[in-house]
Amino acid sequence: MNSGLTLEDLTVSHDGRVVAQVSASVAPGEVLTLMGPSGSGKSTILSAVMGDLAPGFSQTGRVLLAGRELDGFPPEARHIGILYQDPLLFPHLNVASNLAFGLPRGGSRAERRAMVDAALSDIGLEGYGSRDPATLSGGQAARVALMRTLLSRPSALLLDEPFSKLDTELRARIRSLVLDRARQAGIPTILVTHDAEDAAAAGGRIVQLRSMI
Ligand SMILES: Nc1ncnc2c1ncn2[C@@H]1O[C@H](COP(=O)(O)OP(=O)(O)OP(=O)(O)O)[C@@H](O)[C@H]1O
């Protein structure tokens, strides 16, 4: 059974005008790069996959995960992880609780704590568990956000330029961390980027969106 992600003639319109259109299929563990000029609809396509279009937009076509159509599923039942340029962390939870939020249910307190500690170590933030997210640098917050998403074991991963605000060295490290994990876990992944180095690191096929205006 194909457990990849398929976008079948996915078309998004606003006021009767097509603003984004794509057909693509992403195999398990493949990182497909979505490129295209500003305004060609890259972020809009990711919102359509999430089933989370802003009011006024409508979509046609199909999104299939593991061969099953996602249409009609509430967003929380889709198990699709998304990361944006600006890391979104819960401001009222400390760093450890933000990470624990991503863990699937189950397991003892001690097991969950051990998983959070291992995750902090993986992102080079040992000892940061009790910190308030507001006290983190941009790069530290980005690492926590991506690890929280990875811990939730998404069935598919959407990356909307999540590396673009990081400095060159951190960018390369965080990029490898997330792309390697996605590949190892067999997660079909779509990376939106303007950056040729990101696309090369992704190593998968590149789909170019055309500007619809
Ligand atoms: N609220 C809106 N009303 C009308 N059109 C909109 C609205 N929001 C976005 N659009 C249009 O949808 C199209 C796709 O925008 P989108 O942000 O998905 O492009 P993008 O490729 O991600 O751009 P960028 O690379 O600049 O982030 C654009 O033409 C944009 O003008």
From TrEMBL:
- Kindly give the PROSITE patterns that the UniProt entry links to this protein: ABC_TRANSPORTER_2 (PS50893)
Q: Which residue range or ranges hold the ABC transporter domain?
A: 5-213
Q: Which UniProt keywords apply?
A: ATP-binding, Hydrolase, Nucleotide-binding, Transport
What InterPro entries does the record point to? AAA+_ATPase, ABC_SmlMolc_Importer, ABC_transporter-like_ATP-bd, P-loop_NTPase
What is the E.C. number?
A: 3.6.3.30
Molecular-function annotations in GO: ATP binding; ATP hydrolysis activity
| Class in the EC hierarchy, top level | hydrolase
Against SUPFAM superfamilies, the record matches this protein to: P-loop containing nucleoside triphosphate hydrolases
Top-level lineage group: Bacteria
In Swiss-Prot or TrEMBL terms, this protein is called FbpC2 protein
Q: State the species of origin.
A: Jannaschia aquimarina
Its lineage reads: Bacteria, Pseudomonadati, Pseudomonadota, Alphaproteobacteria, Rhodobacterales
* Underlying gene: fbpC2
